Amino acid sequence: MAVVEATITEACKAAGRTREELTLVAVSKTYPASDVRLLASLGVRNVGENRDQEASAKARECADLGLTWHFIGQLQTNKVRSVVGYADVVHSVDRPRLVTALSHEAVRAGREITCLVQVALDDDPGRGGVVPAQVTTLADAVAEAGGIRLGGVMAVAPLGQEPGRAFARLREIAEAVRADHPEAVVISAGMSGDLAEAVANGATHLRVGTALLGRRKPFVR
């Protein structure tokens, strides 16, 4: 934890930013609820998960900790009701049908869920996201829907490409979204291997797993 904090602080210093501008989202996928409790004891308040089955169980086990839960994986509409039950932020909104489903379930549950539009910065459909040209249209749909609020944008740096260049593009897209929706200030970008580049390009939320908890075990169904 101390090493990650030092890395973020150094990245902020290099970018002329303050540590308070960044939210660390600890990604605990494949690790048990006991590790979430350990992270919470070290000051972590935001936890990210990318599989509903695993996330919902951990959220129940850690309900007493008052954590903010972030759903960061690709989300199928048949999992939306479950995810809305515990997630405070959904980072992976990438299609109108998902906006409709999230809005419906959030209204039904009497909750307000913060939604980020996931931007596809490469040509790999398996990683999710909407193409840059369609981001503002999808952002408008989120902003107009009940039960959810537009928080901003999210992206994963393309494999094999310079992350700094990708995050600079994401920053431009985020600025275009904010032109119409000033409250949409979140830029979710940067993981263990590229958080410095993300900080340099305006990221507000860093999704860090490996640097906190080590190399992940393969997921077995």
From TrEMBL:
Keywords: Pyridoxal phosphate. SUPFAM superfamilies: PLP-binding barrel (SSF51419). InterPro entries: Ala_racemase_N (IPR001608), PLP-binding_barrel (IPR029066), PyrdxlP_homeostasis (IPR011078). Residues 22-215 form the Alanine racemase N-terminal domain. The modification N6-(pyridoxal phosphate)lysine is found at residue 29. It holds the Pfam family Ala_racemase_N. PROSITE patterns: UPF0001. Gene3D superfamilies: Alanine racemase. Pyridoxal 5'-phosphate (PLP)-binding protein, which is involved in PLP homeostasis. NCBIfam families: YggS family pyridoxal phosphate-dependent enzyme. Belongs to the pyridoxal phosphate-binding protein YggS/PROSC family. HAMAP family: PLP_homeostasis. This is Pyridoxal phosphate homeostasis protein. It comes from Streptosporangium jomthongense.
